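Researcher: Please predict.
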Amino acid sequence: MRSRAFGFWTRVVEATVLAVAIFFSIGATDASSRFDNLGHRLMCTCGCAQLLGECNHVGCPESGRMRNELTAAIASGLSDQQILDGFAAKYGATVLAAPPAKGFDLVAWIAPFAVFLAALLGTTLLIIFWVRSDKKMQMAAVRGLAEADPAEEERLRRIRRETSEEGN
């Protein structure tokens, strides 16, 4: 009896996983989903600094034409990379929403992290320098007191004694 129940629930789980996989793959190759995906990977060239799929300013002279080009490229059967390369060749690399992670453009990905790490290292070294110099100054002050003349030492002892008595 237990074996039948386990088999039943195993089949239910398998059917659910299959249904979810089919559900998520239904629109994966659909032209409208490709349009949305590519539209969010390209920039509008009118100067609005918006993604092509998001450009919404009134009377944009570029977004309509670029969207028509994107639709035609998708309909012609080009791959996503071919479409992105075509737009980059026609409009320049600035049409891409994210620079490619290769060649010199890799610097655009690495530089912010490198600058942050360098600033963090510099700040840490500066704090260490300040702490060490403060300790050196304290040690010099202690050595200076030890080397002070007897009259000065007596005056400092009297000040400490008088201030400690006043505090009590």
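Model: The longest helix spans residues 106-146.
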